Amino acid sequence: MTFSIVARDRATGAYGVAVASRFFAVGAVVPHMAGGVGAIATQAFISPLYGTDGLALLRAGHSAQEVVDAVVGRDAGNHSRQVHVMDSKGRSAAFTGEKCVDWCGHLIGDQISIAGNMLAGPQVIDAVMETYQANPDKVFEERLLSAMDAGEAAGGDKRGRQSAALKIVRGEDYAWLDIRADDHGDPLAELRRLLAVARERFLHVAELLPKRDNVHGLLDRTEIDNKIAALDAEREAAGEKSASFSTPPIKAGV
What we know:
Blueprint: E1 2-8, E2 15-21, E3 31-34, E4 38-44, H1 48-59, H2 64-73, E5 81-86, E6 92-96, E7 105-109, E8 112-117, H3 123-133, H4 140-153, E9 163-169, E10 177-181, H5 187-206, H6 222-237
Antiparallel strand pairs: 1-2, 1-8, 2-9, 3-4, 4-5, 5-6, 7-8, 9-10
């Protein structure tokens, strides 16, 4: 019921998972990841334990293949599961159960894996792989979304569209970017709108949040407030509207 991509960005070491499905809130259950540790996408007749327990195994130093072998090997229901994993060294492994609904399958490349089930055909994951590999110079989040757009254009989930998600972790356990369209007629387009909103303010703040090597984070918000105000002014001067649906600030005395 889903197709997804798990990848690592060579430039930053960040991990990313992008996923789309004719299933509600797919981003709530498919991606599991941590910076410097690895990333997992668990799908088909989902077992969230493939994600949670698999991530624990990655933290303990197990390879992607060892993780897949472990979570699949203990599960009598693995015939209806699909999972793909990337470890801290960028190695990938994947599994597609024999009872996953056609079309189903997976591909593994250099620091990338793609998997899908209930798809229009193998051309879906082929298009995702080809587009991702053809755009090495795009920023990571754009590269992931462009690849997913190509998979959708090739037929996507054969039942239709409902939800999508994009999650990226850098050096921390928490996400640098985590956006979801849980119930939408064109969820990948909605992710692009949300990414545009994130770029207006959120991602500038995300760069300055506390991190392992600086648990204090930003101590004076003046600089970031001025930067965001300048970006807002540039957008207004160019006649561009915010991508956000947020309401304007309440004016004092009104």
